[in-house]
Amino acid sequence: MLVKIQSIANVGLETVPVDVEVDVASKGFPGFTIVGLASKAVEEARERVKTSIINSGFDFPAKKITVNLAPADLPKDGAAYDLPIAVGVLLASGQLPPSILSNLTKMFFYGELSLDGALRPTKGILLLGLFAQKKGNCQIFVPAKSAAEATVVSAIKVIPIKSLISLVDHLTGLKNIKALKYIPVTDELDILPAEFDLAEISGQEQAKRALIIAASGGHNLLMYGPPGTGKTMLARALPGILPPLSTQEALEVTRVYSISGLLKPGLALIKRRPFRAPHHGVSAAGLIGGGSNPLPGEVSLAHLGVLFMDEMPEFPRSVLESLRQPIEDGVVEIVRVLGHVQYPASFTLVAAINPCPCGYLGHPRRECKCSDKQIAKYHHRISGPILDRIDLHVCVSVVEIDKLAFVNIDQNKITSKIAKNQVMKARKIQEKRFKDLPIYTNSQMHNREVKKLCFLTPEAENFLKLASQKYDFSARSYFRLIKVARTIADLENSPKILVNHMAEALQYKQMI
Amino acid sequence: MEYHKVRDWQKRPELNRLKDLSNPPKELFYIGKWNPDIFQNCVGVVGSRRITNYGKQAIEKIIPQLVFNKKTIVSGFMYGVDQYSHEICAANGGKTIAILGWGIDYKLSGYDLQLAKKIIKTDGLIISEWRTQKPTLWTFPSRNRIVAALSREVIIIEAALKSGSLITARLATKLKRKIWAVPGPITSRTSAGTNNLIATNKANIWLADIKPDPKIIANSDPILDILLNESLTADEIARKLGKSISQVGAQLSLLNLNGQLVERGGKYYLNDN
């Protein structure tokens, strides 16, 4: 008898339906074959399925069993086909009531089996949920440990399966498993306290201000300063002042994490903006994404959040250069043998740079041991094109703790909550400005939009001219300065860019 | 300009120092408002006619501090170091005495006249030992002896190996006045004389442990004031002034652009040039 069980394959973030066709032949030598461009993990499903069916107390038919994963030309990977194959075998050998057959088109099975018949957490459940939602009025049978991922998807029934036995009991009507309750995403997105509050960082007012500007206008940020001055803390505080994720955005982020298998079991949705800090030993594939079946890299895991690159010059140059496309386009395209996938990668880049290899150049108390040549070499590791894509450059200097103690800095102390409000107001203004355009923030403006949408007062224009003469700006730096000034003006709710905004923007010009 | 004669200067206690001279002047004439206090604490600041940028910087550093300490600057009203010293002193609101190398009746014009007016305006004096005397070779060394005698200390800013200011230095040594010389680059001719004075132990070396006066900057700004003593980061400036970092940042950019500040490695410095 032949049955068709529905499952899916995730190619990048795209979900493709996969029919798991199981045939238990009445004639022929006993055997178990899987066809349909199955990877090693899928091939091994034979042993897992066979053992878990037997260990669950069912009968594994001593007949010729053929499994076909269609479409046959799509490479399939992972252990998630264990469950549909097992269900197919049980159904085709008559161990499940045939009444299910009529409902099979509305059922999706997805999950990895353990030898004792239990189900193991499996990645990509959210994508399955979203796919089932599109089909409409479907049930998905998924491992109980990962089932929470799909609860944020409306209009589907999520049946959490603990083991093969409980599934059979449910299907035969012996013991029903309750579908998980749908959790509306909006409820989940209540403003969470920031992981790191700006108020925890002493001093560094200018760097904090730069963070607010970066968050408001979506600008990339480079921090320059000796070690131990709080660069990492500042970077970690950035996600906390970005506006909360919208429903759509939260799903987008969770999708990436779901496909990477990085969602913690039981976690339904990623509610915070991600913060990724790859180590500088990362490979280009690790950063951008890759593998024979391409998985998202750090840039995609930082999608809609913050990608922090500490000690940026220590990253291999080829790795840094690979950042150009995602910074510019907000997506990465990965081409591998097994296909061509696209992952979203729209992140805020925060880079930290030491002034020199030893880190103490310009330190008030410690001596720098680097030669001029070493320093120049260190700075040259970051290419101009990358630096040009970073709008804000800020100096993070050594905080003299004893000095801080004498001055009452509480008056100027800004908390993440206040900062977040400022950011959200500025974002609202930008939303209005770009309502007819496919961009959301000032940093995404191209020169054409800058000319059209950024109005400078004559004084500001004059200031900009003088500044570009003095510092010998390139055309790109020129426009970058206007964009930053535009964000500063937005923060002050000023429709025009005044000379003060321009002057403040000049504080964050390129330094190296 | 209207001038007066100092009647019986020998009887005026404020001019007692002039009696140290072996050949004190016979008569004295002055322009300005006579106030005995001006002679209390005189410092002679002299130097070469050919002033270099370094000399100017040195004067801009030294004079404001002297003014701050209520010293009167005495100099020779010759172009170069002398006039620049008078100028900076007047600009800082200090009192200065210009000893002319010519008769008091001699008509001034151009910059000389302007400077003379500035000196009078800040309660300074212009003094000469002659009524009508044209400037000639001998009048200048003669004037130098008055500069040396009036001063308690003499600072030589810049001098070549053969310079009139070395005469002032020699006279001041004889009168047991304290001599200071500003060291200069060993490659500079205009500092060869001063360096030589230091090398031969005839003058003390003047090292700039002085703090410039805020008034030196005409276009004053609170940021410039607090940067006089130390270089600071933008954060520290904002903290000191109790202003928001955005305001301070914008102001720093403006000051940087019009050349009053320089930024190096995240710290701001006053631009001394």
Architecture overview:
In chain A, helix 2 packs across helix 3 (82-92). The model of chain A has no long low-confidence stretch (mean pLDDT 88). Chain A is elongated. Chain A is of the alpha/beta class. The N and C termini of chain A lie far apart (71 Å). Chain A has helices at 40-43, 45-55, 82-92, 125-135, 164-172, 185-188, 205-217, 231-241, 247-260, 284-288, 298-301, 317-321, 324-329, 372-380, 384-388, 401-406, 416-433, 447-453, 458-471, 475-491, 499-506, and strands at 2-11, 14-24, 31-35, 64-70, 107-109, 112-113, 119-120, 138-143, 156-161, 221-224, 275-276, 289-290, 295-296, 306-309, 331-336, 339-344, 348-353, 392-395. Chain A has 2 domains: 2-183, Ribosomal Protein S5, domain 2, CATH 3.30.230.10; 189-243 and 274-412, Rossmann fold. With 273 residues, chain B is of the alpha/beta class. Chain B folds into 2 domains: 4-205, Rossmann fold; 217-270, Winged helix-like DNA-binding domain superfamily/Winged helix DNA-binding domain (Arc Repressor Mutant, subunit A, Orthogonal Bundle), CATH 1.10.10.10. Chain B has a 9-stranded mixed β-sheet, sandwiched between helices. Chain B has a 3-stranded antiparallel β-sheet with strand order 10-12-11. In chain B, helix 5 (164-174) links the parallel strand 7 and strand 8. In chain B, helix 1 packs across helix 2 (81-91), helix 2 crosses helix 3 (110-121) and helix 4 crosses helix 5. Chain B is globular, with a radius of gyration of 20 Å. The A-B interface holds A 203-206, 208-209, 224-225, 355, 361-362, 395-397, 399, 403, 407, 409, 411-412, 463, 466-467, 470, 488, 499-501, 503-504, 506-507 and B 233-236, 238-240, 242, 244-247, 249-254, 256-257, 265-267.
